């Protein structure tokens, strides 16, 4: 598979921020003679343009998280290519946090990892606490957060460096109604500023919130 590369500047695809095609992935399980192959992706692909909110739907086990991990470079594909134009952030389906660190400490740690200055990090952190309404948990350890608040921290950490392309795997599964609306407010502001968001979910309730919806079925992607 091609390594994640940048689209050439001034290319005709100047509005494209992420383009993937021909993605295939087979998981091999067990040992011989009981080896089993699970062909999860068989030529899947998608593209994201600036200022676009795209949904990726598919039933449980259809390969959505597998595709997202390949798009972000966390999992190698067997075939296909991924091209990225600009910075990328992602929110995994299972939060990756350090259970003994507080929310504040996560922001500090991730701010350093993303190369933000202390001022940049503090400003983004304050905005994210406000946007997702969880400042009161700033000093709470991650292992003492409720599932919904943990999901807020997971999302906030992906948003901290303000990436051009944001991939979110089941972002609102644990959110209450107020947080769900706050989430869409944040996504709408990203669209207005020309950033792109891919929302991965096994169900999409509000189709009108998306510019396009792509369905993953039997290893392939198609417009819904
Ligand atoms: N690391 C792995 N090793 C082996 N098989 C895997 C692995 N990860 C996922 N699978 C299998 O690949 C298939 C697709 O899994 P995946 O998690 O990508 O689906 P999904 O569409 O994200 O599902 P969900 O809606 O439940 O989140 C499933 O059959 C799953 O069991
Ligand atoms: Mg999944």
From TrEMBL:
Keyword tags: ATP-binding, Nucleotide-binding
Keyword ATP-binding: yes
Record InterPro entries: AAA+_ATPase, ABC_transporter-like_ATP-bd, P-loop_NTPase
Domain (ABC transporter): residue spans on this chain: 18-224
Sample GO molecular function, one term: ATP binding
Keyword ATP-binding belongs to the record: yes
Top-rank lineage group of the source organism: Bacteria
UniProt-recorded name of the protein: ATP-binding cassette domain-containing protein
